[in-house]
Amino acid sequence: MLYAGLVAGIAAGNLAAHAIGVDAFRVFAATLVLIAPSILGARLLYVFTHWRQYRGRPRRIWSRQEGGMAMYGALPAMLLLSAPLVAMLGLGFGRFWDAASFTILTGMVFTKTGCLLNGCCAGRCSPSRIAVSLPDSRGVWRKRIPVQCLEAAWAAVLLATAAGFAGRLPFHGALFLLVAALYSAGRLALEGLREREPDAGGGVFLARGFSAITVVSALAILVVQWPR
Predict the structure, then answer these.
(1) What is the pLDDT of residues 129-147, one digit of tens each?
(2) Phi-psi category of 139—alpha, beta or left, where left has phi over 0 and alpha has psi -120 to 50?
(3) Which of 29, 57, 180, 191 could make a disulfide contact with 218, Cβ separation 3.0–4.6 Å?
């Protein structure tokens, strides 16, 4: 599902680049270059928040026989490395990230489906009507809130929202900032529905902190940059 998400996301980013009038081939090239560091950052943040699992078995960190990634580890790595990359390719930073918003959201729909199938990011046990029988990452089946489906649905809603606002906001990068703020606000709300993993350390609080910081930062930049 990660691979399917990458392929579909790149295709969505290519369509978005054409729609907003940015060089689609250069966006495609930049996205391909940024995939590796984004996966690396996502894996390292997951390992950091689950260090108890890996402390005595460092070879597991790079094992391809198991999953484990955190999206908030991918985004900072991509943002930092994209600045010199898009400048070298002659792309505007804001315009590139407006197109990349579609790549990220599309990929998220697929990867959250993978989380559902694998049991990671499992929802809390619940007797509510929306709860369904699902496993967690250890294979324990319970009636759980399908939080992975809720996150995938939120990404799909934001994808439709981004499509509606593409090319209509007053400055380049505004679309990405809007998507980042809305996604993080939704993630902040959904984080409480996840089952807390016993070996995740402070991962829940770290994710909430990232979400809150992203919401505040994105909204602050929007307010400052928005034309008076």
Answers:
(1) 999 999 988 889 999 999 9
(2) left
(3) 180
